[in-house]
Here is the input.
Amino acid sequence: MSAPRRTASGFTLLELLIGVTVSSIIITLAMLAWKPMSRSTLLLRDRARDTTELRLAVETMLQDLGGADTALPTSDPEELHIVREQAVAELAGAWSGGADEGILYALSDGRLERRDVALGTSLIVASGLETFEVERVAGTETHVTLSVGEGLGERQVELVWPR
Amino acid sequence: MSSPRRPETGESGFTLLECLVAVLVLSLLATGLAKLTVHHDRIVADLESWTDGDPTWYVTQVDDDLARLVGAPATLTADPPPPLSPPPGPGAFAVTVSEVELQLDPPAASARAHLQEL
Here is the structure.
């Protein structure tokens, strides 16, 4: 009497091993492609945040410089002192004693603070700034340099107040 | 009714249809991944070029006194503004020289003139 014949079905061990190897290669390739993409996505996110902060700082300063009479560095090269025109200061209620005490921009711990000395108000206009440098050039121009980010993600803008 | 079965030829392995479907699916995946990578690289390159450089901007106030008074912000220009016109000098004068005196030793010269503002 012969033994019942067993019909083998399914994959052999070799087929399974090949399948697993091919799948692993595909997954590895996908991850290799994904890694730089996720890194640059993070870089872009940081840049977007930094650019927004830089833009906020510049826009706020432009608002004050729009009615400014002078914009000069103080004894601290990281401070900008903006004095308003008389009419602008009077309208803002900042004209007292025949002068405007002005607005001070100063960098502290990466945060750019706008302090209205005349009105006694203070506001953080941007954060994450690396540098905020003010320099008087040739006695005729005030250069304000702002930068955000580090290394490859660094972004710098220079504003020139030509008065 | 019986389901379709492979012809029992005694051979094992994938049919041509199975191979084609597998190749098609893999091709679709690879194409999608490649397109995604290329698109992403292009976006990154665009952004890099956009944020490259350290621009210098010149701050310019608006000319309108009233607009400045009510808080019009300054604007930025890439080009330096034109130089300010020199301050107005004193008015013009009519000069009438009435007397000139010259001396050789020691050399000297003097004149008497009359200025009249125009």
Observations:
- The mean pLDDT of chain B is 78.
- The interface with chain A takes residues 26, 29, 33, 36-37, 40, 44, 47, 51, 54-59, 61-62, 65, 68-76, 80-81 of chain B (CB under 8 Å).
- Residues 22 and 91 of chain B are 94 Å apart (CA to CA).
